[in-house]
Amino acid sequence: MNWWKNSVIYQIYPRSFQDSNNDGIGDIPGIISHLDYLEKLGVDVIWLGPVYQSPGDDNGYDISDYQAINPEFGTMEDLDNLINEAKKRNIGIVMDLVVNHTSDEHEWFLEAKKGKDNPYRDYYIWRDPVDGGVPNDMKSTFSGPAWEFDEASGQYYLHLYSKKQPDLNWENEEMRNKIYEMMTFWLEKGIAGFRMDVIDHIGKVPDEKIITNGPKLHDYIQEMNHRSFGNYDVMTVGETWSATPADAPLYSDPQRKELSMVFQFEHIGLDEQPGKSKWDLKPLNIIDLKKTLTKWQTEIGENSWNSLFWNNHDTPRIVSRWGNDNEYRVESAKLFAILLHLMKGTPYIYQGEEIGMTNRELSDISQARDIETINMYHDRLGSGYDEAAIFESLNAKSRDNARTPMQWKDTKNAGFTTNEPWIPANPNHETVNVANALEDPNSVFFTYQKLIQLRKQNPLIVHGNYTLLLPDHETIFAYEREYEGEKWVVVANLSDFEARLDLKTTPTETIISNYNKTYDHLAGIKLEPYEAFAVKVLS
Ligand code: NOJ
C-alpha cells in the first residue's frame, strides 16, 4: 500500500532510448538490454511512453489499437518479457494510458466516420456547423481550430490535439466500459500502474468550451478506479496541467478512490509571458519558482500526493532551461537533482536527465520531428513572425529538445543505433554519455543514485514537513525538512554567480554536496555558482 510514495520513477521515451534492430527507432528489446543500468541507478518504476499500435502522428499518443504493440517497438511477447525482466530487478512498468482521444485510424473512429447512424458514432464528439463554419472557436494545442470537418456527414469532430487524434466522448457509457476492459487487460499482465495522459480533459463540455475540470471529471475517474485498477496494488498518476493545490486532494485523497497522485505543471509555466503561449518567453524569476514549488509542498494537505519533476518528453531539458549547460553543466544538473529529490512527493527522472543531457539546437525546420513544433513554425511564419524569433522560441521550448537519442557512448549516434536515427543525436554525446558517467565517481549519475538511496533510507524525505527558508533571496533556494525530531536543510544557489548564505542553524552532518564540501556552519558562507547541498542540523 502506498509503496509509490517511497518510489522513484524513471520515464522512458521508447522511440529514443535504445534501438536493437537497427531501424533507427528505439524499441522494447532495447529497453530490456538496459534494465541492469536502471537497476544500478536504483529506480523502482519505469513509466513507459506509449508503445501501442499507432500511425505515429504524435509519436504514439495517437493509438489505433490499445491491445497491440507497434511493430516498430517490437511484439506483445517483447512487452511481456520487459514486464518479467523488470520485475526480476524489482522494477515495475507503468503504462501510458491515452484515453482522452484515439487515433483517427482506430477502428472505433473508422466506424464512426461511416455515418450518423453508426453505433460507434457517439464514441466521438460531433457537431453541426454553425453559420457554415466551425461549431465554436476552440483551438487545438497543436495550432489551428480544434474542429475538423468531415465531408461525408457534413459534421465536425473535436480534436484537442492533432486532427488525427479525435477526442473520445466520455458521456458514452459503452465506450467507457470498453476502456475499462482494456485497462484490465493490461492490469492482468502484472503492470505496476498507469500514467494517464491529459486525464483532466475527459470531463470536457465542448459546447460550453469547458476543457479541463468538467463537472463529471471526478465521477469518471472514480468509475474508472472502481471498474479497473481499484482492486490491484498499482500506482496511478494523472497528467493534470490544470490542477491547483486545491484540486490535488480531489484526485489523490485515498478516501475518494481516484488516483495515487497528480502530475501538475505550475512551475513549468513560470518562464512564459502570462496569458500567452508557451512560446512567448520571459526569464525565470527564482523567487517565483520558490513560491510555486513551496505552494505545492505546503498547500495540498495531508491526504494528497504530488509528483516531482523538472522535465519530460514535452518540455526542454532542465540544465539547458534553468541551469547552465556549458561551464556549469555538471554542477547545475546536480543542483536540480538535489533540490527536487529532497522534497516531498514522488520524483520522476526523464531519460538522460541522470547524466545531465542538454537541449539540442535546431537551425532549420527540416531537423524538427515533432508535430507541435512543425505546426507552430508554419503557423507563426504565416502570421508574420520573424524566423529568428521563431527559432529562439523553438530552441527554448520545442519538444524535440528532449527527444534526441539517449546518449550511451561516444560512438556514432551515441550508441543508440547503427542506422540513421529517427532524430539526430546531440553532438555533445562525445562527452556527455552513460559510459563516461559510469566511469566517473563524480558524475551526475552518482548524485542521482545517491539521492535515490537516501530516499529509501530516510522517512524524513518522504514524510517530513517542509518550510521555505530565505523566501526573498534572489538566487538561493533553501528549505528545511523536519520529521520526528530530525531536521535537514537543503540549499541551492541557482545562479552563474557566487552568493552569500547566512543561516543560523548548525550542521551536524553533510548529507550530499555537489562541490564535495562538508559544512560545519552556514552563517556568512560563500556559495559557488550552482552550489547545492543538504545537511542534517541541530534541531
Ligand atoms: C500529453 C503527452 O505527454 C503529449 O506528448 C501528447 O502530445 C499529448 N498529451 C496528447 O496526447
Q: How would you characterize this protein structure?
A:
The structure is a single chain. By secondary structure, this protein is of the alpha/beta class. 26% of the residues lie in helices and 17% in strands. It has 15 helices and 20 strands. The strands form five sheets. It has an eight-stranded parallel beta sheet. The protein has a five-stranded antiparallel beta sheet with strand order 14-15-16-20-18. A three-stranded antiparallel beta sheet has the order 6-8-7, with no helix packed on it. It is globular, with a radius of gyration of 23 Å. The chain starts with 8 loop residues before the first strand and ends with a strand. Bound molecules: 1-deoxynojirimycin.
Q: Uncertain spans, ≥5 residues at pLDDT below 50? A: none
Largest sheet: 8 strands, parallel
Instruction: Determine the structural class based on helices, strands and strand pairing.
Output: alpha/beta
- In round numbers, the mean pLDDT is 98
Spell out which ligands are present.
1-deoxynojirimycin
The strands making up the biggest β-sheet line up spatially as 11-10-9-5-2-1-13-12
Number of helices: 15
Residues in β-strands, percent: 15-25%
The rounded distance between the terminal residues' Cα atoms is 31 Å
Quaternary: single chain
Shape: globular
Name some characteristics of this structure:
five-stranded antiparallel beta sheet, globular, binds 1-deoxynojirimycin, eight-stranded parallel beta sheet, 539 residues, 15 helices
